[in-house]
Design goal:
Length: 93
């Protein structure tokens, strides 16, 4: 019985030590993965903020007016607009 306990201890202690090291390695890998994902998330967040600013600048009325002038476009009067209604097309209202 004592001999069986000694053999069990001889095999279980190194096995538990190996499992502890392996678990530490897995934790370290998970930690690195999370850090990479956080960096990528921060980068995407910054790109998104920049895109929102660019959209706001590009859609501002002054920018649109400037582009219209560059393209030679002119603002039309209400009396120059002809509205055509097609019955049954859902644009009756």
């Amino acid at each position: 019985m004592k001999r069986l306990l000694v053999v069990f201890m001889l095999f279980s202690v190194p096995a538990l030590l190996f499992l502890n090291i392996w678990q530490g390695f897995r934790f370290w890998e998970a930690e690195r993965y999370i850090a990479r994902m956080q960096d990528e998330q921060q980068q995407l967040f910054e790109e998104n903020k920049l895109m929102i600013v660019n959209i706001a600048v590009a859609s501002s009325p002054s920018r649109i007016s400037e582009l219209a002038r560059e393209l030679g476009l002119e603002k039309t009067d209400q009396q120059d607009i002809l509205r055509v209604r097609i019955p049954g097309r859902g644009n009756d209202g």
